Amino acid sequence: MSTIHAIIFGIIQGLGEFLPISSSAHLVIFPWLFNFPDPGLSFDVALHFGTLIAVVLFFWRDWIEIITLAFGKKYDTAKFNYPKNTLWLLVIATVPGALAGYLLEKQAETIFRSPLLIAGTLIFAGLILYWVDKTGKKNQNFEKISPKNALLIGLSQAVAIIPGISRSGATISTALALGFDRVSAARFSFLMSAPIIFGATILKFKELLHNFTSIEFIAILSAAISGFLAIAWMLKFIERVSYKIFFWYRLVFALIIVLVYLWR
C-alpha cells in the first residue's frame, strides 16, 4: 500500500460515504479494476474513522444543539432548526443498521463482493433514487420526521450493507419516498451516519491501533477532507438540482463493471 493508494482510497471513501454512489462498491471495484493491493481490515477502519471525523466536524454545532435539546436545553449553536427529539430519532434509525452489520458481517466480506452483484445493485438502487426523487411530494421538512419515519429510514440503512446499495442513497431514497424535501432527507442521512460509523470504528479500533502507520494516517486525512467537502457540496447542490446525475453515474459505472467482467 503506497501513499498514492492511501489518498485514492481515502477520496473514494469520503465521497462515496456521503454522495449516493456507494463507497463500499467503489472500494471493492477499484482494486478489482486496477489491481490495487488489498487494503486490509485496519486500513478499512482508518477510512471509516476519516469519514466519522468529517461528519462530526461539519455538524459540530448541530451535534451540540441536538444533544442539549434532548436533555431540555437549547444553546442556539446550529443554524438549522432541530426538533427536541432529534437525538432519539437518530438512535432509532441506527438500530436496524447496527443489527444488520452484526448479523451479516461475514456475508458483507464474502458473497456480497461479487462484481456482477455490485453492478446490479448500483443500477437497481440508482433507479429507485431517480424514481422517488422525481415522484416524491417533498412537502415535509426535518421537523416532521417521526419515530416511525426514523425506523423506516433506519431499515433502509440496514439494506445498504450490500455494496452498491449506498448507505446515503438508501436513506435519502426512503426519506424522499416518505415525502421529505431533498435537504431534510440528506441532512438526516448525514447525521445518522455518525452513530453507525462510530460503532463500526469502535468495534475494530484495536486493529487500527495495532497496525497504525503513516499510510493509515494519510488515509484518515484523505477520507476526512474529501468527506467534509462532499457534505458541504451535497447540501448546496441538492437545493438547486435533482439526484438524477447520481443515477446516470451509477448506471455508467455498472456498465463498465459488466464490460470488464465479460472481457476478462
Low-pLDDT sequence parts = none
Distance, first to last CA: 24 Å
Task: Give the overall shape.
Answer: globular
| Percentage of residues assigned to helices | over 70%
Treating each run of at least 4 consecutive H or I residues as one helix, how many helices?
13
Percentage of residues in strands: under 5%
The major beta sheet can be summarized as:
none
Rounded to an integer in angstroms, the radius of gyration calculated over CA atoms is: 18 Å
Task: Write down how many β-strands occur, each being a DSSP E stretch of 2 or more residues.
Answer: 0
Tally of structural domains: 1
Helix-and-strand structural type: mainly alpha
Order of helices and strands: HHHHHHHHHHHHH
Query: Mean of residue pLDDT?
Result: 91
How is the topology of this model organized?
Layout: H1 3-18, H2 23-34, H3 41-58, H4 60-70, H5 86-103, H6 105-108, H7 115-135, H8 147-159, H9 167-177, H10 182-203, H11 205-210, H12 214-240, H13 244-263
